[in-house]
Design a protein that fits this description.
228 residues, mainly beta, 8-stranded antiparallel β-barrel, 1 helix
């Protein structure tokens, strides 16, 4: 948790730094989607994030604050799976556990671009590509062993954007998501060793690695002429 709050603090600090005022980018919003791969870390897989990969699909709406900052609302649907059979850890009575589930997630993300992202207007020093860092929060729903569960998560990650044209963007994003529940891999693995632990510590993680394509719309009014 200390690392999470440290990273969030750094992002907030970067976003609060003074930004040189200039005309806004041409478009305010960006809509798109993507597909990719998920990974899981928990009681049924403690070491290798990519050992039991599954799939994900994303729909997203991004509000472009300026060439450096953006807010993104996203909806994910994806699969997660794991198997404890190959683990070195031994569960009580030598039991092994396997699970597979589909999750649904709604989240809000803050993005900080390392470069002024855009095309044209050379005085702004715009670049048609940029890496970025991102963090936020999410709400997720899933079902394992016939039991539906709900939890909050904290996603942290990095990404890369590339402008194919003035309104079309390609992207890649990797997120690690801390799920504030230990039932992501099923009720049997919520506390397999019967050891009481804190709510924050005894939890599962999962990742999404998603390739996206998006389209910008809703042109800004750079010079507004107002008459009564």
């Amino acid at each position: 948790m200390k690392r999470i709050f440290y990273i969030l603090s750094v992002i907030v600090l970067l976003m609060s730094m003074p930004y040189k005022a200039s005309a806004q980018e041409d478009y305010r919003f960006e809509i798109g989607g993507g597909v990719g791969m998920t990974g899981y870390l928990g009681d049924a897989n403690t070491a290798n994030l990519l050992k039991y990969p599954s799939w994900d699909a994303e729909a997203m709406l991004r509000y472009i604050i300026n060439p450096r900052l953006a807010l993104k609302t996203n909806f994910y649907v994806g699969g997660l799976r794991g198997n404890s059979a190959d683990m070195t850890n031994v569960f009580p009575n030598n039991k092994s556990f396997e699970f597979s589930t589909t999750f649904y997630e709604l989240g809000e993300m803050f993005e900080f671009n390392f470069f002024n992202y855009g095309i044209g207007q050379t005085y702004k020093k715009l670049k048609r590509f940029t890496p970025y860092i991102t963090a936020g929060f999410g709400l997720m729903l899933w079902q394992t062993d016939g039991n539906a569960s709900f939890s909050v998560n904290i996603p942290l990650g990095v990404g890369f954007k590339y402008k194919v044209s003035k309104r079309v963007n390609l992207g890649f994003e990797f997120l690690m998501k801390k799920c504030f529940s230990d039932k992501l891999d099923g009720k049997d693995l919520s506390d397999p060793y019967m050891i009481q632990s804190s709510f924050a510590k005894n939890t599962d993680w999962y990742s999404t690695m998603t390739f996206t394509i998006s389209y910008e719309f809703s042109k800004r009014c750079e010079v507004c002429h107002y008459k009564e």
